[in-house]
């Protein structure tokens, strides 16, 4: 089963970063690969079992479900339900840890998935370098002290 991982030190405290990440419906606010995100109307942004639909910058649509949210560990895990990516059994986890020496936050974003072996290297690199690392760079900018912290785009609910 292929695995991929990216991490970054975010110039904000762990609590601030966690409040941003734990909003399962708020990914479009900081992830540049996502044009718009929508939670199902009946879902709260922190409800395990919640489903979000992501309308991607490349024109694709990804549907994900929140499978775990742990405020004590500052971690969330989600699965892809459907996407244009040639993956099966995709599960990703994001975790926030304090960097005690500086007051910043360390964020790790990992995923495991199944795919055709010939696709594995390309998918590992794409998720790591484009989706995760690009998203973490944008998260650092979004959470930077002194920034207004407003969303880039508006999230909407879907039926």
Automatic annotation (TrEMBL):
InterPro entries in UniProt: Polyketide_cyclase/dehydratase, START-like_dom_sf
Signal peptide extent: none
Top-level taxonomic group: Bacteria
Family annotation (Pfam families): Polyketide_cyc2
Database matches in CDD domains: PYR_PYL_RCAR_like
Protein name: SRPBCC family protein
Organism: Streptomyces demainii
């Amino acid at each position: 089963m292929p695995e991929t991982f990216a991490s970054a030190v975010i110039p904000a405290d762990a609590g601030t970063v966690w409040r941003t990440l734990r909003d399962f419906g708020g990914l479009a606010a900081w992830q540049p690969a996502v044009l718009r995100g929508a939670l199902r109307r009946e879902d709260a942004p922190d409800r395990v079992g919640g489903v979000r639909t992501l309308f991607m910058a490349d024109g694709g649509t990804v549907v994900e479900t929140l499978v775990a949210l742990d405020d004590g560990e500052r971690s969330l895990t989600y699965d892809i339900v459907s996407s244009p990516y040639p993956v099966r059994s995709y599960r990703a986890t994001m975790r926030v840890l304090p960097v005690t020496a500086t007051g910043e936050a360390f964020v790790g974003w990992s995923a495991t998935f199944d795919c055709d072996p010939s696709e594995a290297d390309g998918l590992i690199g794409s998720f790591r370098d484009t989706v995760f690392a690009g998203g973490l760079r944008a998260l650092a900018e979004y959470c930077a002290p002194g920034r207004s912290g407003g969303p880039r785009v508006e999230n909407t609910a879907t039926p």
